[in-house]
Design a protein that fits this description.
- The structure is a homotetramer.
- By secondary structure, chain A is an all-alpha fold.
- The first copy, chain A, has two domains: 56 residues, Homeodomain-like (Arc Repressor Mutant, subunit A, Orthogonal Bundle), CATH 1.10.10; 153 residues, Tetracycline Repressor, domain 2 (Orthogonal Bundle).
- Helices cover 71% and strands 0% of the residues of chain A.
- Chains in contact: A-B, C-D.
- At the A-B interface, helix 1, helix 6, helix 7, helix 8 and helix 9 of A face helix 6, helix 7, helix 8 and helix 9 of B.
- Chain A binds a DNA duplex through helix 3.
DNA sequence: CATGAATGAGACTTCATTCAT
DNA sequence: GATGAATGAAGTCTCATTCAT
């Protein structure tokens, strides 16, 4: 009588994280409504009923995914933002290069998809992301631009729009990778995009003498 | 055509278009899975059963929405692309300004949302859009960049990435308007964004002498 | 190709009553929690989904059962109560005999069972019955007793307790029939019970001279 | 017995009784189907799993409740019944007064509720109660009535129906307290009910000369 | 013995689809 | 053609029961 595998194992502490990880995958792939709890449970390696030991409803799991996926990154985001110093001309290439390095190995794609796809069905989700992550970033970048303008490094212009200009192409790269690459589109080289964008946009933003 | 044609006689032929219009709204708001045929029927002003006189399944309606929303615009897109001529430095501001004018009154936001949200559930959808709309645009823009580079107007760099750089901020604006403005974020001024982006990016792209 | 039975038939107006009737049966037999919508649907001759065309939730159906079972009888009850006149000694035998005739062919048993069984889980139910049906009856009977006492027909005593004394044995009969007869207990002869109870209790209640 | 017996050592033997007590509460409040084992375990102060050390299934616990709640009272009931002697006119007030004293502090309400509510779902329950408790009582009372009739104390009439007449109002009082008092109805004074009922019904039952 | 995390069958509920009218 | 009542498969959620600890 070979000792069989136990049918299950107690993992009280590890479960929530496993469930959230599985749920992020499924919600990102399918969207909230099309996601099946069966699938989440299967990927988390638990039974359907076990989900309800840790979360009360499907929506609850969704909120957990949203919050737990942002929150730990918020510190990073703020640290990065606060850590900016030095000449604007040096900053932009560094930051974009960092993004280019981080993006491909982070769940940025799935997260963006979730936010975009479910913003109407879950407005709190959009508000949370806006307030906690996006707006701080935009304001930080805008502040750096404004400071650089004050120092005479950067030419006149709306700092917030400059933030859009800096980030937009990277966002487009993320969506491209998420949406079109899986159906055969040519992949984006984030490193190259970051380098070229830093170089060209910066050249256009800096005061001519400063270049 | 001038007389005797009672209005409601046209309904029969108009129905599919009305259904598709209603469906675009609902799919864009809710996503495919969360969209209810009841709701689509209600907004189209028909009974639920009537949908099945024109379409076989919910997915069918979705495909109709996707196709009929792209197809008529494809001609425009191609015309715009083919119509590009003149100096690159003149072209960019014009094109971005046009986009800025068109975007706010087009269903660009909903469409982007649908594509992003349902790309995994309906890969054909992503492929269709890529092949028919996005890739042609990117290639056209890339071609114009390459031509400008050949003429010595634009500095060296990957033309496709330049396309990303040009379009990215506008895309970001669209998503911002779609996702964050409804929950209280400050709106984007597309005109200003287009103007500033054209100016700065162009300044960075053009050969220094050409500026 | 024989023309088969249609799979179903439209019965929009008749459905709610049929559902409520089926539900009364099932709720009375099983109690709220143990009642299965499957069973209710089957007995009402509809699909499970059809229940939701007419009622929003299981609880909704339960409320409909409760209300629609009382309400139509309330008029009768009040009419009977208001119609009481004449000497108390004539009234009691008549009323009890009427009850004895009505009870066996009414859903009195199931209703009592439902109220008793679910009073804790659905306090509104108990309150509704108390306020709308039981209390009015008790007060009416109490009032008749008090009037008879004032006329010197009935001896002193709490009129409300007299109401309990009059009704109690009939209630016990109802519960006996509901609970014990199905498992083999000897049935109750309501007519005989009513007759004997009217006779004996009345004899005890009336003033000695009046007898 | 006096010393060294640590309190908690007794727990092991006390457990089944504690579980049954908790279960009686919960089953009486909710009914069998709506009762949660979680709740029973909580009120008994044990874990859910522990229930299964003493009972095999939920139904098992229910049976234990039913049996252990009746059985110990059966002796009392029989003792009371067998102890009846003397004149019928003296007996009735005594017995009813005893009931009035015992009822309020016994779980009579919950038990009646359980029996009424679950009689269809658990016919054995109804049969058990009928055979072991109710029928003996009815027969004893009926026997006493018959004996009194034989002695010429009580007028003619079906002895079993007399038993219904005697007990019915008290039963109605129990149900009133159980069902309507919690939702605001005026409470029943069992003492007064017993006194008045004994007096009036007896007056009606006794042979005129005997009064 | 005791716990309580984990299971899985089964309940209520939703909604795309069908079809009598 | 058009309607909307009706269906039934499938999804979320509950909870008696089991079993690793």
């Amino acid at each position: 009588m070979l000792k069989g595998e136990p049918r299950w194992r107690r993992r009280k502490e590890a479960r929530p994280a496993e469930i959230v990880a599985a749920a992020l995958e499924v919600f990102a792939e399918k969207g909230f409504a099309a996601a099946r709890l069966d699938e989440i449970a299967r990927r988390a390696g638990v039974s359907k009923g076990a989900l309800y030991l840790y979360y009360e409803t499907k929506e609850d799991i969704f909120h957990a995914v949203v919050t737990q996926t942002v929150t730990p990154r918020l510190a990073q985001v703020r640290a990065m933002a606060d850590g900016f110093s030095g000449r604007f001309a040096d900053l932009v290439p560094t930051v974009l290069a960092t993004l280019a390095r981080v993006i491909p190995e982070s769940p940025a794609g799935p997260i963006v998809k979730m936010i975009v796809g479910e913003s109407r069905n879950f407005p709190q989700l959009a508000r949370y992301w806006h307030d906690e992550a996006i707006l701080p970033m935009v304001e930080t970048v805008g502040g750096l631009v404004a400071a650089a303008q004050a120092r005479g490094e950067v030419r006149a212009g709306d700092p917030r729009l400059f933030a859009f200009q800096l980030a937009g192409p990277m966002l487009m790269g993320v969506l491209w990778r998420e949406v079109f690459t899986p159906v055969g589109a040519e992949p984006v080289d984030f490193q190259a995009l970051a380098r070229q964008h830093a170089e060209t946009l910066l050249a256009g933003m800096l005061m001519e003498k400063a270049a």
